[in-house]
Amino acid sequence: MIRYAVGRLAQAIPVLWVVATLTFVMLRLLPGGPFDREKALPDEILRNIEARYHLDEPLLQQYGRYLNGIVRGELGPSYKYIGRDVADILADSLPVSAALGATALLLSLGVGVSTGLAAGVRAGSNTDRGLMLVSLLGVSVPSFVLGAALVMGVGLWLGWFPAALWESPTHLVLPALTLAALPTAYIAQLTRTSVLDVVDLDYVRTARAKGLSERRVRWLHVLRNALLAVVTYFGPLLAILLTGSFVVEQIFAIPGMGRFFVTAVTNRDYPLIIGVTLVYALLVVFANLLVDLLYAWLDPRIRLGGDPR
Fold first, then answer.
1. Cα 219–223–228 angle (5° rounding)?
2. What's the Rg (C-alpha) of the chain?
3. Are 101 and 250 found together in one domain?
4. CATH code, 242
5. What is the pLDDT of residues 208-226, one digit of tens each?
């Protein structure tokens, strides 16, 4: 398993190179430049700015310079935030986004799996129908609508939690609930379907025949096999949490990577756009690796590394 993990991590290098290259090329293909304004700058000032950031060099030379900086761990200066390097911005914003994403992930998995299990073992009951109705609402309501509703209702009218900013643990509650709503609902539906597929299989009936309590049967036999479908969703789930954080961080004025990414795109801040994109790509690579390792742990019949034995 260790050899497999090392091999997968080594495969991440060309993936990141492709992501960096495509992002670099697409940004340069867009019309205009990072220092274009409604009121054009004088030619001399524009030339000095472009020379400072090496934008006056041929594209191939800019590309080589940037790849060399990535290899050395230098992502370059931000065009928008004067005097700040991209690495410093990411170092400040990544923990914020990580805290928000981790909280939403725990909420999604904990509430979603528990809800799906409860609905699956009580299929056709009022409990099942009620829980699935709530999950349908969670899938249907966009995050920007839910976030605005929580800001107005819970944050401003009721005053239970802060409506915005990032100053204390209580500021995490509303954005985490907003970000977790969609994946929680989807995981609940996915878990329910998986539970219905395994709840009447032979090994479950055998466990009951041995005299195991219903609680142990559900959690040790039914849920463990039902979780394979949820683990499959883990990679896309991380992508949903990452992209969803763009909207959520804007709504709640959270200084995370998503908010910086939106600002960078608006201002054509090339180094910051590529830096954030590389971080997101690396997180998705690690998530997919974790999915494979969890597969092998949940089902020992699954072998990693292509070993047929």
1. 150
2. 24
3. yes
4. 1.10.3720.10
5. 677 767 677 776 667 777 7
Written as six digits, the tokens of 121 are 């073992």
Tens-place pLDDT, residues 146-171: 888 998 888 888 888 888 878 888 88
Concatenated DSSP letters of 35-92: T--SSPPPHHHHHHHHHHTTTTS-HHHHHHHHHHHHHTT---B-SSSTT-BHHHHHHH
Q: Which domain holds residue 183?
A: 96-268
How far are the Cα atoms of 8, 64, 119, 144, 285 from residue 4, in angstroms, in the given order? Answer: 6, 31, 37, 40, 14
Is the CB of residue 228 less than 8 Å from the CB of residue 299?
yes
Q: For 77, phi and psi rounded to 5 degrees?
A: -80, 150
Q: 134 and 15, same structural domain?
A: no
Do 224 and 239 form a contact (C-beta atoms < 8 A)? no
Same domain, 112 and 230: yes
